[in-house]
């Protein structure tokens, strides 16, 4: 049985993994969701200084303080950035890294690099106007759906997403990932691709081509960008398959 550490994406906390966590535990795995600084139940711990390094430290501290071994570290969406950083620092505690509808970051990258300049300008304006200059409120769900698939989220799940979201410390999007940004070569590398990301991979986008090649193992999931909400049991099944 595996030990999963589940890291949520932007605006989310450990709560988002609840159903997937339960399904993994029913399969006999250890499943440990965590909440990053400034989010979820730790929203009051966020400050203007909260950045990507803060979230990397959250993950490494979570693993080390619990003396976890043979860890399968799971990143959803934004969490790819801090998980990549943590994966390069956890050494032999790490057995596997899993990117759920996301991909590893290279050293020197930040979240804002993935967005066109006009979108970055809009985010900065929202932070200035509605986030006290350092927090990014989650956009309305329908606006999120313009760039990330909402497939599989019924009205109840969309409501859960809205109600559970907390503003993201914007420094986590701005700060660039420092090296080392690679786990050791013997760490298993897994990708879980949901609908839109699957289409990009199948289309042969050059910058993503490495994800279709060894040592990467790819699993596809027919759902939208938030599978822990839209297809939690299916996601748990895929994660279980990846470690079996």
UniProtKB/TrEMBL annotation:
<dbReference type="GO" id="GO:0003824">
    <property type="term" value="F:catalytic activity"/>
</dbReference>
<dbReference type="Pfam" id="PF12697">
    <property type="entry name" value="Abhydrolase_6"/>
</dbReference>
<feature type="domain" description="AB hydrolase-1">
    <location>
        <begin position="4"/>
        <end position="237"/>
    </location>
</feature>
<dbReference type="InterPro" id="IPR052897">
    <property type="entry name" value="Sec-Metab_Biosynth_Hydrolase"/>
</dbReference>
<dbReference type="InterPro" id="IPR029058">
    <property type="entry name" value="AB_hydrolase_fold"/>
</dbReference>
<protein>
    <recommendedName>
        <fullName>AB hydrolase-1 domain-containing protein</fullName>
    </recommendedName>
</protein>
<dbReference type="InterPro" id="IPR000073">
    <property type="entry name" value="AB_hydrolase_1"/>
</dbReference>
């Amino acid at each position: 049985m595996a030990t999963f550490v589940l890291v949520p994406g932007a605006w989310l906390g450990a709560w988002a993994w609840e159903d997937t966590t339960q399904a993994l535990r029913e399969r006999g795995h250890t499943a440990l969701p965590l909440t990053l600084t400034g989010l979820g139940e730790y929203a009051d711990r966020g400050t203007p200084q909260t950045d990507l390094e803060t979230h990397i430290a959250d993950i490494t501290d979570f693993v080390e303080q619990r003396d976890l071994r043979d860890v399968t570290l799971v990143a959803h969406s934004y969490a790819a950035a801090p998980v990549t950083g943590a994966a390069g620092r956890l050494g032999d505690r790490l057995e596997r890294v899993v990117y759920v509808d996301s991909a590893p970051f290279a050293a020197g990258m930040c979240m804002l690099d993935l967005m066109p300049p006009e979108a970055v300008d809009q985010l900065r304006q929202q932070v200035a106007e509605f986030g006290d200059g350092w927090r990014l409120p989650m956009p309305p769900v329908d606006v999120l759906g313009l760039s990330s698939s909402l497939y599989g989220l019924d009205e109840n799940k969309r409501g859960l997403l809205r109600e559970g979201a907390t503003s993201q410390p914007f420094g986590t999007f701005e700060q660039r990932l420092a090296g080392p940004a690679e786990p050791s070569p013997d760490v298993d590398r897994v990708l879980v691709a949901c609908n839109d990301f699957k289409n990009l991979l199948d289309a042969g986008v050059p910058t993503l081509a490495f994800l279709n090649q060894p040592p990467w193992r790819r699993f596809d999931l027919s759902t939208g960008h938030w599978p822990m909400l839209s297809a939690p049991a299916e996601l748990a099944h895929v994660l279980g398959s990846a470690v079996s």
